[in-house]
Please model this.
Amino acid sequence: MRRIAAAGAAIALLAAGAWGLAALTHEDDHPVDPGTPGAQRAISAAREVVPGRVLGVLRDEDNGKWEVVIAQDGREYEIELDPATFDLLRLDYD
Model:
């Protein structure tokens, strides 16, 4: 069921024209269902840094870092969060 949700999230992001999301993510980043508790916590922490519309929530396969992509004022921001504490590690924008 989770695989179906992850695949659906990836398709929805592509269908929405989230080209910037593809440019910001790497092949070891995998979509996460935004309704899961961890994803909700990551979204909340990311929105404290950049309020806006969430385009996607991802996990890095190698190190478990959370990555939340948010659209705000015509830009797309990637907020990278610590996997255990959800503290900000990096902020990029396109």
User: Anything to note?
Assistant: The chain is about 35% helix and 35% strand. The chain has one domain: 2-93. The radius of gyration is 12 Å. Residues 1-24 have pLDDT under 50 and may be disordered.
